[in-house]
């Protein structure tokens, strides 16, 4: 049983929205500034909550969560005036004489449901878009990161306008009860199974939905590269981002049979430089979120088709919820590790005869949230960009496409629908209203009855 009165929450937010206060530029700016204050005055509280929920290293927590939200918020503060301005549109002879503009108007009352892996970033970043666009908003953080959920609830109610921005904490019953309400947009980040529940609930009210899901994001590594730079960037995107519990982390790697030993040696020697000879002792590796996910990941490794294929790492400690960076080589395509999103510190390496063969392996699977390629070959790069469909991509890099605020961020197919970040967040929470403006000149009577064939020739 949900212990929240979702109906009253939405009623209050709708009444605030109807009052028109959230539409003003000044209100939007005041709320964006409130987010900046939360980040500035409560950095320590946020870092502690992230350490408690995920054992997230302070460096990662600061760069990926606090600095991530802060740069989005600063961009919105700087650009909001420009974003809110009606955009001039061209007109054609059909409407001559006229002018036209596209007006961005808020949608109304929106719901953001966020996951546990980047609980600050994935909670606050969508809120920036929602309030920049002039909406009222409810955030439902993940119950799996309870300390962060509680810190968000406390700080948002302390610093923000609570008649327009609310946090509803809770798990499935609370979310279910929120989903029964009528929203004007829902942004859901998490797994595809719940994404389908959200979409079905939204359909009842014709509510548009932005689904930020996951998938198996491949990284293809050619041989003509700077191997050490590539190894560091792959390690950073995999283990240096929440121990692989990141939606865009490389899920599996493909390289050629010939290059695999060299690449493996570069990866293992760089991993040792990052996390020491015994990574289980390193404070720079996040823990696995909970026992359920720990068991899920160790089951992937203990699968008969996989256990003999561990070529690096493999150690785990359930009491600390830690799994060392682990590489498995040439596991069969029908093993579970190659058929479900790993979302943890295990990296399967598949080998092919020719690097071009990697494209067929990727396109035979569902469309991932991200795809990566390391190469200096222009033709291969062009072929990869053209042939691989993914939410986003990075060439000779991992994960950084996510922080480039001039790029839309979102999935395609099984990895999601819709996109946000930067101006795309403002657009995601706005309705683009086309407005045609005419005066009383140029009234062509041929359009009016009584109709005649002569009028059609006009
Ligand atoms: P999670 O378990 O925290 O769930 C996400 C949200 O869904 C939570 O707020 C939770 O309360 C809610 N929820 C769970 N079950 C529900 C139900 N039955 N009905 C209604 N709401 C429910 O997070 P998760 O799903 O484990 O997150 C991991 C997944 O999210 C991975 O697949 C990952 O790739 C994806 N992800 C995507 C992005 C992105 O930006 N595209 C970012 C992070 C994670």
From TrEMBL:
The active site is at residue 212. Pfam families: Aldedh. The keyword Zinc does not apply. Keywords: Oxidoreductase. InterPro entries: Ald_DH/histidinol_DH, Ald_DH_C, Ald_DH_CS_GLU, Ald_DH_N, Aldehyde_DH_dom, Aldehyde_DH_NAD(P). Residues 6-433 form the Aldehyde dehydrogenase domain. The keyword Iron does not apply. It comes from the Eukaryota. Belongs to the aldehyde dehydrogenase family. PANTHER family: ALDEHYDE DEHYDROGENASE, ALDEHYDE DEHYDROGENASE TYPE III, ISOFORM Q. This is Aldehyde dehydrogenase. It comes from Penstemon davidsonii. The lineage of its organism: Eukaryota, Viridiplantae, Streptophyta, Embryophyta, Tracheophyta.
